[in-house]
Each structure stands twice: as structure tokens, then as C-alpha cells.
Amino acid sequence: MTGTLADTLKARPNDHSHLTGAFYGRTGLGWHQPTPAHAAVGRPLAVVLPARNVAYALPTVLDALAAQHTAGPVEVIVVDDASTDTTFEIARRHPAVTTAVRLVSRSGSGAARNVGARLAQSENLLFMDADMVLPKHVLADFATRAQPETVLTGFRHNLPHPGGSGSPVMPEGAPQLAADHRVTWTPPTNTTLPYSGITLTDPLDGRPLDATDDFQNLGYGRFYYDWDLPRMAVTALLGVPRERLVDIGGFAEEFGRIGWGMEDTHLGAALIAAGCLVIPLRQAVGYHLDPPDAAAQWHSKLTAWPATLAHYRALLARPAPTGRGHDFATATDKLLTDAEVITA
């Protein structure tokens, strides 16, 4: 298909009912039902965690991965983006980790994810943040539902850091789906919304997930107010097919050099343009552990965000990426040349 990435998105549907229906017919499980371990037999999954200065959370995150109830083979690849704390030492020593990588210089989370995808043996990738704690069924949820044309998105429930230098204290209850902004959204009024450019004059009790029929109504480039389909692809917890990821060239690493944000949105746009469908897993919700200096980090991120948004818009005006497997291999192999790689 010719034209720009934005034009290609307008030609792509997101009707995934045939896939969710076929899954039920094949397994007897509801699409949003937590998955028993045995259902993942023969369904390999590579979990990729980019990590930078997350020693405060990483032990808890890896312990949760070690406790997953799945009968499928799992790789856990932690790519340390030149941390200045003990992140790499934690990763290399934890029994859940099959491959620990330390990049020699800070390269950005997109580059770290690309390195992890390059090293993965499985065709099914699960990207997750290194501060995301998963319930025990989540790896089986993703492994059993992954297909060559699916982008599977989970959700996050942010937990404020309790303060002090100890490990985070996990709540007794399960993380809540409604805590994610893609599920419950209250936009500002009398302010131009950054993605759509519209201004709301009346308060809105937004429900992006429900109102779009599990994102199906966002096909063909449509919006739900300020939300479109690429924005639903959030790499805090995102399952993607490795073959499609490699063909589009992986994450666009220049986002990390510009600042923060939009690299996962661009990845979502590129994968949708390549023919993938974005499908939510409502049962796959993890606790996202805020760092001790969350307010300062958030301020720094927002300062850089307009520049990454401008770059994303510029990429929308270019052709959809395809046939970039060689570039992907070259860029990741260059990063791996001087990296330290520890395998279990």
C-alpha cells in the first residue's frame, strides 16, 4: 500500500471478533478470562524488560515473573540501559532471568527493547516495564492468545512509592482495570487536547475501552475524543509478533534521543499499518510501581514530550515502515558489540 503512515492507518480495520471467537471455540475459555497454566502448553513467550535504575522495584517484579502459573516455555530478557544503580546485578543473579544484558551507554528504552527482541528465541514477545508486577495468570493469558497478526495490550494500576529505602509493599487485592486511563478517563475542559486537537467545553466521564467495543471502533483511523488506535498500544504491558516487529524495524530509537514518550504509539501505528489488530486483555492488569522520585521524573518527561509528539507527527507523514529487517539487525548488533550479555 502506498501513501503515508497516516493514510495507511485510515485503511486498516480493527474488527477482531473472528479471533476472539475462534479462541473460545478452540479452548473453551473466554477472551478476558484468566488462563489456567495448562492452556499455555507448547506456547512459548519471550518477556522483554528494558531497565534503567529500577533497583527499587526489580526484585519484586522478577519474583512475580518467577511465580507465574504457565506451562509454556518462557524466556525473561532484562536489558539494562546503562543503569547507575544495582539493576544489572539484580537481573544477572535472579533465577527468573534467562538473559541479562548491560548496554555500555544509555540508548533509550526503545533501543533496549529492540536488543531484547533481537535476542529472543520465541516468535511471541511480551514487552513489559521493569517496574510492573503481574498477577500469576498473565503470562499464560498472553501466550495462549498470541497470533502472527495480534497486538495484545494489558493494563496498569499505578502504585505510589511508599517512601524510604525499602522494597515496595504490595496491596492484598488485585490490580484494578479501571485504574488505567484507557479505561477510565477524565479529560480537561477548555483545553486543546494534544492528539485530536479538539477542545471539550463540558466535563466528560470518558470510557475509551467500553465505548469503542474493545478498541474495535477505532479502526480506519477513527478517534474516541483524543484516543486513537495507536495510542492504545502501551508498552507497559504489550504482546507483539516478533516477525512483524522486525519487519517494521522495531522501535524507532530516535524517540529516546529526543526525550520521552510516543515510541510505543509509533510502534502501534506501524504494526497496525502492517496489518495487525489491537486487542485488549481486560484480565491482564499489573501493578506499576512508581519510583521514589516519581514527581520529578514525571516533570522531566512532560518537558520533553512536545518534541517527541512533533517527531511522531512527522513520521505519520512518511510512508509506513516495512522491509526493515536488515536495518533492525544492524542497529541491534551494533549495540550488542560492546554489551555485557549473561545467559542462564
Q: What's the order of the H and E elements?
A: HHEHEHEHEEHEHEHHHEHHE
Strand content: 15-25%
Mean pLDDT: 95
The percentage helix is 25-40%
CATH class: Alpha Beta
Under CATH, the topology can be stated as: Spore Coat Polysaccharide Biosynthesis Protein SpsA, Chain A
Report the strand count.
9
**Gyration radius from CA atoms, angstroms:** 19 Å
Number of helices: 12
Please, what is the oligomeric state?
A: single chain
| CATH architecture label name | Alpha-Beta Complex
Principal-axis shape:
globular
Q: Separation of termini?
A: 43 Å
Sheet with the most strands, sense and barrel status: 9 strands, mixed
Defining traits:
single chain; 344 residues; alpha/beta; Spore Coat Polysaccharide Biosynthesis Protein SpsA, Chain A; 9-stranded mixed β-sheet; 33% helix
What does this structure look like?
The chain is an alpha/beta fold. It has one domain (5-161, 174-343): Spore Coat Polysaccharide Biosynthesis Protein SpsA, Chain A, CATH 3.90.550.10. It has twelve helices and nine strands. Strands 5-8-6-7-4-1-2-3-9 form a nine-stranded mixed sheet, with helices on both faces. Strand 1, helix 3 and strand 2 (74-80) form a beta-alpha-beta unit. Helix 5 crosses helix 12 (325-337) and helix 10 (263-273) runs parallel beside helix 11 (294-316). The protein is globular, with a radius of gyration of 19 Å. 47% of the residues are buried. The mean pLDDT is 95.
Provide a quick synopsis of the model.
The chain is of the alpha/beta class and 344 residues long.
